[in-house]
């Protein structure tokens, strides 16, 4: 059985109807429209309705703002890591990275028996080294803090998507909580960062063999496989009943209406023969 067959079977199990018919009746996920309904006639409460619409628009924009903030944090973390890596790539470890910033440690033989000059240079070097170490530690703390904020925002985005998925997959919670396997940290992060994270969680919970396969992959290979699964996952959309008024009664056949001329001819014939 292929992944596509598995995915169709999952959708069928979750909704109690064949996946094929659901897909034929449903819009693709990218075309799902929210907020469809009858246009409302504005009354004396028009101002209140406008404010409510503005609040709803603001609510809809919050996930987008969170996504923008998450992407910004990812860039900042990557930049900080790149800077730390640049400082520590020379000859191995933090000490070599510090020496790039403050220069090599003074050697007594370089001062030609001027012991006091050597001591002064040594003192300056130690002070600079301590300051550089403090900067490195501060950078590490900043990376950690931004990572925590990044994970917090990812969690909020995942929760928002989870609410939508629950509306389409009624057995979502039962399936996810029934999964007892192990998921590597790299795969967890790929799932949480995905726009289809909750749907991936649902699918993988029903296919533990795929989880084991992902756990055994390199991070790059796992990311490619997650992307392949994403392209095949789509949520069923229930048929929406139209709220348009019923069509008017069509005209039926009958006698043609009389014209004024025919009425006049009939009167003349009756009166004068």
Automatic annotation (TrEMBL):
Species of origin: Agaricicola taiwanensis
Q: Which residues form a coiled coil?
A: 122-149
> Which segments show compositional bias classed as Basic and acidic residues?
68-88, 104-113
- Please list where the region (Disordered) is annotated: 1-113, 227-273
Q: Where is the composition biased (Acidic residues)?
A: 46-60
Entry keyword set: Coiled coil
Q: What is this protein called?
A: Uncharacterized protein
Coiled coil as UniProt keyword: yes
């Amino acid at each position: 059985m292929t992944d596509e067959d598995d995915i169709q079977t999952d959708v069928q199990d979750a909704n109690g109807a064949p996946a094929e018919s659901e897909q034929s009746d449903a819009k693709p996920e990218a075309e799902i429209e929210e907020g469809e309904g009858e246009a409302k006639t504005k009354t004396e409460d028009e101002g209140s309705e406008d404010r409510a619409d503005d609040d709803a628009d603001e609510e809809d924009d919050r996930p987008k703002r969170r996504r923008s903030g998450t992407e910004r944090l990812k860039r900042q973390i990557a930049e900080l890591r790149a800077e730390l890596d640049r400082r520590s790539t020379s000859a191995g470890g933090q000490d070599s990275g510090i020496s790039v910033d403050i220069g090599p440690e003074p050697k007594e033989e370089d001062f030609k028996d001027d012991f006091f000059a050597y001591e002064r240079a040594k003192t300056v070097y130690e002070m600079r080294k301590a300051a550089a170490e403090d900067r490195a530690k501060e950078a590490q703390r900043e990376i950690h803090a931004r990572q925590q904020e990044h994970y917090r925002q990812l969690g909020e985005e995942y929760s928002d998507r989870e609410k939508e998925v629950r509306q389409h997959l009624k057995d979502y919670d039962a399936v996810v909580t029934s999964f007892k396997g192990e998921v590597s940290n790299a795969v967890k992060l790929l799932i949480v960062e995905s726009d289809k994270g909750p749907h991936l969680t649902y699918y993988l919970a029903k296919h533990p063999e795929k989880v084991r396969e992902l756990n055994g992959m390199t991070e790059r290979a796992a990311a490619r496989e997650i992307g392949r699964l994403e392209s095949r996952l789509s949520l069923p959309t229930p048929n929406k009943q139209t709220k348009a008024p019923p069509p008017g009664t069509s005209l039926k056949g009958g006698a043609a209406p009389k014209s004024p001329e025919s009425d006049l001819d009939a009167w003349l014939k009756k009166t004068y023969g």
